[in-house]
Structures
1.
Amino acid sequence: MRFGIENANESHREILEKRVAETENDFAEAIEPVDLNCLVQWKKVGAFLKKSRRTISCEGSLLAAQCLSNGHIMATENLKDFEVLKPMGLTAENPLA
């Protein structure tokens, strides 16, 4: 979200900064830092994808790594892209299905 603010039209930045601050405050307990374990897992995900000759967006692979390193279930509407990581132990579910 912060990256989006940097790229937003100058006239929108003030309200966006306020909304991001409110969101970060409201969801503070659910926000996890990207730590060393996650980064190591991200490299493993990248290597696995390369070996499998598959790709996932940079953001998607980082989210998958965060889920793998913390034992979380990946919530996504895009189950197809993440099926490839099932052998690594990733569980993905569509919360809207």
Note: Residues 1-31 form one domain.
2.
Amino acid sequence: MESIIGAIYISEDFSPSGAEAIFDNVLKPFYDRHVTLKTLSHHPTKILFELFQAQGCKQFEIVKEKDEDRQITRCDGKTNLLDPKQHCLIIPYAVIVHDVVLATTQDSAAASAARRASESALDALEGDAQFLTRTCDCRTHAQARKAHKKAMKHIPSGFGDEEDDLLSVKDVLAEQRAETSFIGKQSRGMMP
């Protein structure tokens, strides 16, 4: 398009009137008809995944539901198992967070079914702002793993006895508490 408009601009002796006419009569109607804020917005699945990741949730997915006994639904909405030529396969999708179904939808095309499932999930999250707080514990587990790894770094290996290992963990934790207390007293001016 840039080349065509440039060629028209040059052929009109560098007058913008020809390029403006092409824009007004060809490009503008196309943009007005096909390019809207909705078509320019981010894909709902991207928005949904970014929302989950921002909340620290790692256990979510959009899945095609499995239903082996599903009946074939014809395009006119009637159920028909005998004539496979007169049907549209309905594909169900679900958004699952920590084994909880957040939203489901179905469509005749997999891509639009997944998109609609994401849109429904975003609507559900908007309607229930506390859903992730109630359902997701990924951040808590991540912090616990981090604390466990930090504590395990200080434990000497090779004791061989579980009781000794437990004692050494207690010793490490007590040592860390004493260190924190000593630093706190120093910062308050209680220690030289």
Note: Residues 107 and 121 are 15 Å apart (CA to CA).
